[in-house]
Description:
Elements: H1 2-13, E1 20-24, E2 31-37, H2 47-58, H3 66-69, E3 74-78, E4 80-81, E5 84-85, E6 90-95, H4 128-135, H5 141-147, H6 152-168, H7 184-193, E7 198-202, H8 208-218, E8 223-227, H9 234-238, E9 239-244, E10 247-252, H10 254-261, E11 264-268, H11 275-284, E12 290-291, E13 299-300, E14 306-312, H12 323-326, E15 330-333, H13 339-349, H14 355-373, H15 384-395, H16 400-407, H17 415-428
Parallel strand pairs: 7-14, 7-15, 8-11, 11-14
Antiparallel strand pairs: 1-2, 2-6, 3-6, 4-5, 9-10, 12-13
Helix pairs in contact: 2-6, 4-5, 13-14, 14-15, 14-17, 15-16
Amino acid sequence: xxxxxxxxxxLTSNKECSMEYITAGESHGPVLTAIVSGVPAGLAISEKAxxxxxxxxxxxxxxxxxxxxxxxxxxxTSGVRFGHTIxxxxxxxxxNRDWSNWTERMSVFGEPPQDLVREVTPRPGxxxxxxxxxxxxxDCRNILERSSARETTMRVxxxxxxxxxxxxxxxxxxxxxxxxxxxIMELAVAALxxxxxxxxxxGKATGKNILADNLAWLFRRPVYTVSFHVNTDSxxxxxxxxxxxxxxxxxxxxxxxxxxxxxxxxxxEINMAKNDAVAVLHxxxxxxxxxxxxxxxxxxxxxxxxxxxxxxxxxAGTRELNEALVSRxxxxxxxxxxxxxxxxxxxxNVSEASDENIKRCTGLFLDxxxxxxxxxxxxxxxxMRGMIAALHLxxxxxxxxxxxxxxxxxxxxxxxxxxLVRDVALTRFA
Length: 430
């Protein structure tokens, strides 16, 4: 309450008061820095909270190989004492782990290496050309190091200070996907708000799991995931006996944990569930909202708990869900991604890939998906992760035909299917 009063006084007594920030640092330099000024004294600052925002920035689709190198952790080097601001500017810094690979090319002092290659081609959609002209440079590297998406790291870190300030005033900041396809997000949110569970059905690479994760984030609920396969049984879902402290106790599984803590339980490929697991889902999703665990007391399902299931649909031989289980969900059909959207998806994940290879991988994915729908092949080769892996291998120098072979074709262990997939791949990657 004392801090809240001080924040209100700060806002009302200073007509021109404002928090401002400035960032510094290069994408491949030793460190990125942000200085936030105008921060009132007494504000609690959490490095853990800022690091959580930085981790969210690095997660999900649309990230290149750089994200696998960097594990961003913020350091607060001024303006904070014993976890609270002291009224002076707050300095934040994040080290670049990739700096170790660029010490000669990005050295602060000294002479450039003799084998240094200048960047002479500005990137489209970036500030490279404008910066070169403005500063009379002959090396785009000097500009792209600053106009890199890496610079957003410190914007996120600085925003963490503003988030802490607004939280004291009862204001929360969050983001989420507003729509996927034809108002898919709105439909799912409406169903969940009404207490319904949601089944997302559709073909491969339609964003089912991404949507499920976004829904959990939007509702600020913990996530518990079950990936169904032939060995998934009731104990996998509810839990197993464990001997602890001299007695047998229940070590709860993901369904029981979601029920206990009001989390979102994502049931991935629910149509792969066998009868034992289906029986558990029937009881867990009925109106009584109780999980009956033999040998233990019933587990009540938290009012905030929701179940989001996903299943591939439209392929020959795909297992159908029984009527009783389907009736426990509201069903949302995910729209099929067309060629332009698939190209965009691949480009977002492998930004350095050539347009030609992205187009060929997209075409191959659509070809294989069509054959899977017709029942000519299984869905083993209809693999978006495999396509992304193949593009990474191509950009690293592997021959496209070989990259497709190890990432897609060789995943078919039936000789007849292998031959079919290989022939389809050769039409795109001869």
